[in-house]
Amino acid sequence: MSPQITPIADTEQDLELTERLLAPDGRRVPNPQLDPFVADLDAAALRALYRDMVILRRIDAEGVALQRQGQLGLWAPCQGQEATQIGTARALEARDYVFPSYRETGVIYARGAQPGDYVRMWRGEEGSAYDPAVLRVAPLQIIIGAQTLHAVGYALGIRHEGADEVAVTYFGDGATSQGDVNEAMIFAASYGVPVVFVCQNNHWAISEPVALQSQYPIAGRAPGFGIPSMRVDGNDVIACMAAMRWALDHARSGKGPAYIEAVTYRMGPHTTADDPTRYRPEGELEAWRRRDPISRLEAHLRSAGELREEHLAEIQSAADAVAKEMRAQCLSMVTRPALAVFDGVYAEPHSGLERQRDEYASYLASFESEAGA
């Protein structure tokens, strides 16, 4: 299932090199490779995927709003990438373990995150954003590509223990230029471990276009490591689920790692500290809005008579309820005292730690002195 290696000349040609099941206008298109993996999806299942994507977009919008209002230090939007995240994450088994980057809000949502979990890390509060043991999701990784090595290490453990699970790691197109990602692929292929690599190609590594760092489809790199790959339309939630089921089946059956490149688009900024109007070509965003993953599935369901006004009203109500609770939990969080960072570092008193605590206390006190001057 590895892709044909053809240079990328423009966006339209880029999209022609992807596997899909839904055309941008919502028409269902046959695909012999993907169809068998989603034969069980009925109208109710498709509505559930649509519901997930609408809720995710509402969560994302609330995160941006909270950051703009000074309640969060930063937020990494995922608008436009809902199909990739929901489609792949909903294909996972509960026993699988995920190693995300910082943009996988939809993945942690699908794994059972609670409203406060979306904002805790971005607010700079104590601990991880959520309990990794409960969600079976490692903490959100800020260091670009580092989580791929963690996933392969975990997958090595799976292989040694003979466990029936798969490690899955998510990363962006920019991360594929990092050594960590390539080293992870070498180890994964060499040891034949059960890991799935999911590259969300959203076309922009901050301000660098993907075509600058990758003249050929990114999925074409994986076979060079001995890893089978698939390039899928990342704005087609059904195709994303099918591709993930293929990859999971491959890894779980003892055949080693698999690789998915989901071709999607980041509609918003890289983070709320970014201004994409400074580097994104005029008209590009509007062109991708016409390929919106939510609108695509909505058009498909409406044409089949499977999405009625009562469905839409319930879904919007559910999305608003999640966002309201997310905001309430964010505003109710109490930041622990700054000096508490030294608590629990050692089981017994430690003179070096006490000295550092005193130095930090003096540093904090200096700001109070300046304010009173």
Folded structure, characterized:
This protein has 373 residues and is an alpha/beta fold. It is built from 13 helices and 7 strands. The protein has helices at residues 11-16, 43-68, 82-89, 105-110, 132-135, 146-161, 179-191, 210-213, 237-252, 284-289, 293-303, 309-332, 351-372, and strands at residues 97-99, 167-172, 195-201, 204-205, 208-209, 229-233, 258-263. Strands 1-2-3-7-6 form a 5-stranded parallel β-sheet, sandwiched between helices. Strands 4-5 form a two-stranded antiparallel sheet. The protein is globular, with a radius of gyration of 22 Å.
Layout of secondary structure:
Elements: H1 11-16, H2 43-68, H3 82-89, E1 97-99, H4 105-110, H5 132-135, H6 146-161, E2 167-172, H7 179-191, E3 195-201, E4 204-205, E5 208-209, H8 210-213, E6 229-233, H9 237-252, E7 258-263, H10 284-289, H11 293-303, H12 309-332, H13 351-372
Parallel strand pairs: 1-2, 2-3, 3-7, 6-7
Antiparallel strand pairs: 4-5
Helix pairs in contact: 2-3, 2-11, 2-12, 3-9, 6-7
Strand-pairing-aware structural class: alpha/beta
Rounded mean pLDDT score:
94
Question: Total helix count?
Answer: 13
What is the ordering of alpha helices and beta strands?
A: HHHEHHHEHEEEHEHEHHHH
Strand order, biggest sheet?
1-2-3-7-6
